[in-house]
Structures are given as structure tokens and as C-alpha cells.
Design goal:
Chains A, B: InterPro entries: ArsR-like_HTH, HTH_ArsR_DNA-bd_dom, HTH_MetalResp_TranReg, WH-like_DNA-bd_sf, WH_DNA-bd_sf. 2 copies of one chain form a homodimer. With 108 residues, chain A is of the alpha+beta class. Chain A is built from 6 helices and 3 strands; from the N terminus they run ααβααββαα. The first copy, chain A, has a domain of 75 residues: Orthogonal Bundle (Arc Repressor Mutant, subunit A), CATH 1.10.10. In chain A, 50% of the residues lie in helices and 13% in strands. In chain A, strand 2 and strand 3 form a beta hairpin. Chain A binds a DNA duplex (30 and 30 nucleotides) through helix 3 and helix 4.
DNA sequence: TTCTCACATAAGTAAACGGTTATATAATAT
DNA sequence: ATATTATATAACCGTTTACTTATGTGAGAA
């Protein structure tokens, strides 16, 4: 019972389009915040706050390198979350849908 | 992109503990509203409203039989929702966790 | 008919949510 | 040292959420 409410809490992270997009992108590779700001159409603080929620529940981890902070999927993403992410479009699809050219890495 | 926001909208239905419990119960058999009211610990209108949301998004269907309305999982539950429900506790586990004796059917 | 039971709908409310702008911090570049 | 860039945090705000109580509706029982 506890368990089912915990699951609901984590699933809440997937219940917002912006966050589900972020997770789908991260499924393929790491992204730094400025890339996500460029891709998603909300403000930088908006992106930061979504990332904070995702991190606080252990779905993503951050890696600070110089000026940038790179986010990637945590290895601890529970199976019921992973199973959903298998059904979301991949980053290539998302990026072309948004008319963003597919960058390979780094903001520089 | 459209697609990802649609998925997020349906996942929102799983992001509440009460609704996730309802769906997990329905995975095993149909339940009438009064059974759900007895099991879950919220008011009857509260249960009705959750069921309305679940129905409006096509996750459950209703079957009126006499005085009662029986709800069951829709056959149209999309795969990414089904895959989550494979990880939730079954109705037996939920009922014993809540100290409700396992009824086999009907309110009568 | 009248009462009761099962359910739905309406209206109200406190809290959470998802965004914004403004500001702080920390690293790099000049 | 100063400016610029990347990110985080704070404060605010309108909307949505998940409940509640009160009331409506429709079926079966008396």
C-alpha cells in the first residue's frame, strides 16, 4: 500500500509533458541544461526546476563539468518507469519534430 | 510531440495513489462503486470522480446492472499503461494490506 | 406512493503544480 | 578586476488537483 503510493509519486514525474520529454531525451544520451533550454520551449529556471524534481526522486543524476551541468538517466530508474520510457519517441524523433538540428554533444 | 503530451496526460491518471489502487484492483476483476468506497478510504463522491476521470480517458468502462454500476479495465488500455500495471500489487495483496476481507463478487 | 440504497453531479476549498521574472552563485574569458 | 555565461534559487501567480459536503437521480423494496 505504501508501495503503491510510492509508485504513484514517481509516476507523477512522468505525468508532465515537459518532464516526459526530458526523460525521453536522456534515454539516448546526456544533455546539459542549456541544451534542454534550447530544445524545450520554457525558461531556463523552468527547466532547472523540472530537473531538480527528477533528481530529488532519483530518476536523473547530474555531472558538473566546468561551466556546465550534464544530466543523464540514473541507473536506479525503477522498472515500471523504464517500461514507460520504452514507448516514448527517441531523441532524434523529438528533435526533428521540434525543428532542432541534431547536435552530437556539448554546448561549448 | 503531440504524442508525448498525450502519453503524459494518460500517465497523470496513474500519478495519484487512489487511482493507481483502483486500476490495480480492476486488473483482477470488476468492482462496483460501493466496493471501492469500502476499500479505499475516501468518500463516495471522491471515488465517483476518480472513476469519471479514468472513464473519460478510456481506461475503464462501466456496466450498469440494476442498482449497481460495475467498473472494469477497458480493453483499450494502452501498452505503456499496461506495462506499469504489471508492477503494482494485485488485488489480494491490496485487500489484505487494508484489512479488508476478500469478497468474491457483488455488494448485494 | 414512499423510502432506501447506489451512484452522480455541483459547489466550495486548501494545497500542489508549472510556469514566470528577478536575483544569486560559480566558472570561464577578457 | 570585470564581464559573460551556465545554472540554481526565491518569490510570485494563475490553474489544476483531490478532497469535502450538499444535493440530484434513478432503481428496487415496502
Amino acid at each position: 500500500m505504501e508501495q503503491i503510493y510510492e509508485m504513484a509519486d514517481k509516476l507523477k514525474l512522468l505525468s508532465d509533458g515537459t518532464r516526459l520529454t526530458i526523460l525521453s531525451l536522456l534515454r539516448d544520451r546526456e544533455f546539459c541544461v542549456c541544451e534542454l533550454v534550447d530544445i524545450l520551449e520554457i525558461s531556463q529556471p523552468g527547466v532547472s526546476q523540472h530537473l531538480r524534481k527528477l533528481k530529488s526522486q532519483g530518476l536523473v543524476k547530474e555531472d558538473k563539468r566546468g561551466q556546465w551541468v550534464y544530466y543523464s538517466l540514473s541507473v536506479d530508474v525503477p522498472p515500471y518507469i523504464r517500461s514507460v520510457l520504452e514507448y516514448t519517441p527517441n531523441s532524434k524523433t523529438i528533435l526533428t519534430a521540434l525543428n532542432k538540428k541534431e547536435i552530437t554533444s556539448v554546448c561549448e
